[in-house]
Structure formats: structure tokens, C-alpha cells
Amino acid sequence: MKLVNKKQDLRNQYGTYSSNTIIGNYSENQIELEPTDIGDIIPMSGDFRVIFSIDGQLYGSSTLLSEIESSDNPYIKKSSLPIVQLNSEDLKSDIDFTPRENYAETSITENLSSVDDLAKHISWLLDSSQKELRKPAQDYGEYNVSITSYDPTTDSGLGFEFSTEAQKPID
Fold first, then answer.
1. In this predicted model, which residue has the larger pLDDT, 133 or 36?
2. Is the per-residue pLDDT at 50 higher than 50?
3. What is the pLDDT of residues 67-89, one digit of tens each?
4. What's the CA gap between 109 and 141, in Å, rounded?
5. Does the pLDDT of residue 3 top 70, yes or no?
6. Structural domain boundaries of the chain?
7. Pairs from 35-39 (Cβ < 8 Å, separation ≥ 24)
């Protein structure tokens, strides 16, 4: 079964379609269907077949949305589309990675923290046409690297003094 059927693909045993009107076997028997309303779904680049919501804002692939709009299918409503509901607070991590950042001699200065950043990343994850991994600090986020020198007398530098803390399991 396709997610989006064109109106001409729909079986109608009661009559025919004319725009958003179903006309019965007798022309007096007509019913007006509301036009497809998907106007407040934000189009995202990529090709994926689901609508997702972050904090109530809907996002969908521009491919799917244009297919829905061109289908002229009067039965497609937001309530009939598959919508994955997400909460931005569940997508953001409150884990302190400072010991691991110290060990790697990096400091994260920017990550996926806004709803827009999260939506772009989810869109990328869902896009079946993606063949490459995203590159941190190029495609998203930013970090600083501060490589130190190793001092064998103190066994410090290159983040070695943070190795014990960095190896502790994350709760």
C-alpha cells in the first residue's frame, strides 16, 4: 500500500470525483470533501515517508509534502498521516561530558541545541538518499582542540591525567 494515492487510484463504488466533490450515481447525490490541509508542516530537505513533530511543530520531507499536495486526494488530512511526536527536552542530553572532553583535549562549544538544529539532524537521519556520515563541526556543532605536550616525569599531558575519570560509565 502506498502512503499517498492519487485521487484517480481511489476506488469509489458510489460514483465519481470532481475536484473535492463525490458525485453519486444520481447527480443530486453529492458531498463536498474538505481540501487537503497540510499547510503548517515545515518542509525539510530529503526523501523520507513520515511526518515528525518536535514540541508540536510538524516537519516533513519536501518530496512527501509535494506528493501529498499533487495527489489531489481529499482523504488525506494531518490526522491521517503517520506523525512521530518528539519532545526537544528528550532529544537534548544533560549528561556532563566534561571528563571525556578533557581526556580528548577538546571543548564542545556548540551542539544540537535548538529545535531547528534537531529537525535538520532528524531529517538527515531519515533521508534514505544519504550515503555519507555527517561531519561534526562541519555539518553541525563546533569544538575547540587544545593538544598539550606529554611530560613523562609527571605522566601528564595529552589528556592522560583525565583517563581514569573518562573511563567511568555514564549513568
1. 133
2. yes
3. 888 877 777 888 888 899 999 98
4. 7
5. no
6. 12-90, 93-166
7. 35/74, 36/68, 36/69, 36/71, 36/72, 36/73, 36/74, 36/76, 36/77, 37/77, 37/78, 38/65, 38/68, 38/69, 38/76, 38/78, 38/81
